[in-house]
Amino acid sequence: xxxxxxxxxxxxxxxxxxxxxxxxxxxxxxxxxxxxxxxxxxxxxxxxxxxxxxxxxxxxxxxxxxxxxxxxxxxxxxxxxxxxxxxxxxxxxxxxxxxxxxxxxxxxxxxxxxxxxxxxxxxxxxxxxxxxxxxxxxxxxxxxxxxxxxxxxxxxxxxxxxxxxxxxxxxxxxxxxxxxxxxxxxxxxxxxxxxxxxxxxxxxxxxxxxxxxxxxxxxxxxxxxxxxxxxxxxxxxxxxxxxxxxxxxxxxxxxxxxxxxxxxxxxxxxxxxxxxxxxxxxxxxxxxxxxxxxxxxxxxxxxxxxxxxxxxxxxxxxxxxxxxxxxxxxxxxxxxxxxxxxxxxxxxxxxxxxxxx
Length: 357
Ligand SMILES: *[C@@H]1O[C@H](CO)[C@@H](O)[C@H](O)[C@H]1NC(C)=O
Ligand SMILES: *[C@@H]1O[C@H](CO)[C@@H](O)[C@H](O)[C@H]1NC(C)=O
Description:
Elements: H1 2-28, H2 33-38, E1 89-94, H3 107-122, E2 125-129, H4 145-155, E3 161-165, E4 169-171, H5 178-183, H6 185-191, E5 223-227, E6 232-240, H7 243-252, H8 255-259, H9 266-277, H10 279-282, E7 285-288, E8 311-313, H11 323-332, H12 352-356
Parallel strand pairs: 1-2, 1-3, 5-7
Antiparallel strand pairs: 3-6, 4-8, 5-6
The protein binds 2-acetamido-2-deoxy-beta-D-glucopyranose (2 copies).
């Protein structure tokens, strides 16, 4: 009897151990092992080298940054969902300091300095990439924002989200928490607009008859963007490190099909085109209400900056000649808490009337 009891005890122990593993796996098995590896506290940190003064030799698509890596768990069409760590968010200003924005004195220096403070407050990573370094052939210069996104993922191998924001944007609410409000799976689930017309010109004049999906898998959302009254706007866009994002960036910069063609809206038209043409792209692009992260300096409650909004974008205001004055006005109101531009008639973002107006 003694002799039999020992193995029996080890059998019971063995079965219990297996059961515990099965139970643990049930609970935690849907989290990829990289989750723990990525989030390990002993992560080594080497300072990132950016060579903003040195032009890149040769055609941009041949650069090593286009081979940025994607972790195994985000290599399929079906994505994953988790709130990113703050330090894995890169706030990317892709600019050479020229263009319309140069009408405002020291605009690049000032916005970068301001974004640095915003990033330090929240632990995000602030990054400026000088876009005149990329050899993009004859394409319009705003295309060079796309190689900058690839380079940001390449330079920061643990970056999970890259937030591409134009230089003519002022962060108005420095307390704004990007993860809680925009990037966390819960925020995406609540915030993105389903079954909403994708615009290509004004809705009434040129209906595309194509809408965002009725039903998204939140795990698949890899791009977050907004639309103004005529089209998606790339002035403020979030990209997630996944195989889909890499494919999309490569398709957008396809020189024969898109980038080398004469598109008035450059990279913005490319993403709009891909959204209208490809259901797969639509299922990976989340469209938020405009003011969530791309409020314009002027416009109705749907479009124009209102108190408490994350930022203000001076999109297209260069033609009116008032940009400089407006810029200084908003710059002086950064972080304001007073009633300055209150909302008149707030509408829930998923209200069908929201998009029709
Ligand atoms: C960006 O890089 C180019 C050279 O590639 C340089 O001439 C220019 O001064 C740089 N811009 C800024 C704002 O430093
Ligand atoms: C959208 O539908 C309307 C009404 O049925 C039609 O007139 C229009 O041509 C359609 N537009 C496209 C781009 O298919």
